[in-house]
Amino acid sequence: MRKIAILNQKGGVGKTTTAVNLSAGLARQGARVCLIDLDPQAHATTHLGVEPQKGAASIYDVLVRDCPIETVKRSLQPNLTLVPSHIDLAAAEVELTGVVGREVILREALAQDTQEYDYLIMDCAPSLGVLTVNALVAAHEVFIPLQPHFFALHGLSKLLETTSLVARRMNPSLQVSGVVICLYDSATKLAQEVVNDLAEFLNQSRGQNVPWKEARIFETRIRRNVKLAECPSFGQSIFEYAPSSNGALDYFALAQEIHCQANVI
Amino acid sequence: MRKIAILNQKGGVGKTTTAVNLSAGLARQGARVCLIDLDPQAHATTHLGVEPQKGAASIYDVLVRDCPIETVKRSLQPNLTLVPSHIDLAAAEVELTGVVGREVILREALAQDTQEYDYLIMDCAPSLGVLTVNALVAAHEVFIPLQPHFFALHGLSKLLETTSLVARRMNPSLQVSGVVICLYDSATKLAQEVVNDLAEFLNQSRGQNVPWKEARIFETRIRRNVKLAECPSFGQSIFEYAPSSNGALDYFALAQEIHCQANVI
Ligand SMILES: Nc1ncnc2c1ncn2[C@@H]1O[C@H](COP(=O)(O)OP(=O)(O)OP(=O)(O)O)[C@@H](O)[C@H]1O
Ligand SMILES: Nc1ncnc2c1ncn2[C@@H]1O[C@H](COP(=O)(O)OP(=O)(O)OP(=O)(O)O)[C@@H](O)[C@H]1O
Ligand SMILES: [Mg+2]
Ligand SMILES: [Mg+2]
Predict the structure, then answer these.
(1) Which residues, 6+ apart, have CB-to-CB distance to B243 below 8 Å?
(2) Would the CB of A154 count as within 6 Å of ligand 2?
(3) What are the residues of chain B with a beta carbon less than 8 Å away from any beta carbon of chain A?
(4) What's the pLDDT tens digit per position in A71-85?
């Protein structure tokens, strides 16, 4: 099972759009996918048409009230299961302060889960707090969605620093697999410059003893496409909403690139 | 002095771009502006060319170590002063847990500051945690930058709920002044639909006893313009970087709309 955390503390770079549409794309290729929404905004949950009701079971119950993950899952499509989030999760950061081993609760809960999946995908909030650290501890791989803008590069070093800290202290197998270029506007030279800077940075890290030594920029770039911004309001992935749009083509290609990569590893 | 908090817990909607370019636009009209960066990412600080050094004085020292705000200010242009942020601020949420009155520390620090300004602008992180609450307690007005996408509307109710709670318990004069439509793409029907939904929601709130009863959508829409995404890497506001771009025209018009509004109030 590949366990992938989708994270970037910079806001609005395409984390949720990638988590949801990549999960749906992998499911369409026959892979069994479990998507965990770790963002209190619960946008991945809403994106897939599940409205977080007051008091409904969610990842909050797993992290703060020790409920088994089995009890909060929802099977949405043949190969796609969702562990929904809830706004109550916003309080988790403070409620878990002082709880022993608060950073490994998710990994522990997943270890109790007997259900088999091919992929476990975790959507994170725009922060490097305790919820994101839970994802990093539970994951084997990190995917970094990145809008090719200046602020995106600026925050990367802090993101990699946190990943390296978690890898050293709690999860030695954690690797940064790659960067997904999102909201790509090939017409602007800014996008190309940022991608070049990023590629150079990753090349320089080859062979060093860091969790991103083998990280690369995924070949598939996700182009800016308004259909991707429209589909969440219908509770659908891009494949149900606009199957022949650029958004669907790009996320299907990304799913293929990742799924085929798996057979290589 | 108008004290304005720029906030929206949805990530990447244009908070920092608005805080910086509105501050610079107001300063160009002769107003004395103090911009406070309350985001640990320190993007407003970087946007204005100030590189947060390790150990340099910042808003962290004001909030966590009780330093007077006077000691951390930086005067950048004739009418523009910055209170920089620092990555250490990320720890403030946990470090302030249990501190009595942690939500009013910024208001208190500002009350000690003898310097007169026409505008106090606060850029916030994509969260509704203790740093954002400090801004809401210290502010008289809230501006909500909003990208006209589905997720933006989805999070609005939580944002207004938090604002209303702060207004009731700690800051009765707090009002939501308006919504700044950012990253506006007039070519898409999605943008128009979201703006219409938002206008209808605000109209229904007229006359109710809520902090957003007089909120409106600012006439000036900030169009998507790549120059706005380029200027942060040069440490400049849009007015120095690309003075005749759409970005500069839009933010100057927004500054005029807000500055003229002041003379009406
Ligand atoms: N390729 C794309 N083309 C057009 N719009 C997109 C694309 N990817 C994402 N969006 C839209 O841009 C906005 C930001 O994307 P998204 O919410 O996925 O980012 P995020 O990183 O999850 O944000 P947050 O930091 O708030 O969690 C959303 O309104 C989304 O619908
Ligand atoms: N009108 C615009 N046209 C083009 N690009 C823009 C515009 N406004 C903002 N941007 C770019 O979009 C990205 C998001 O904007 P910004 O960082 O200001 O949002 P934010 O709400 O402050 O994000 P965060 O939630 O991470 O604090 C940045 O890379 C910025 O340069
Ligand atoms: Mg998200
Ligand atoms: Mg910002």
Answers:
(1) none
(2) no
(3) 9-13, 16, 41, 43, 46, 87, 90, 93-94, 97, 125-129, 147, 149-151, 154-155, 158, 185, 188, 190, 226, 229-230, 232-233
(4) 999 999 989 999 999
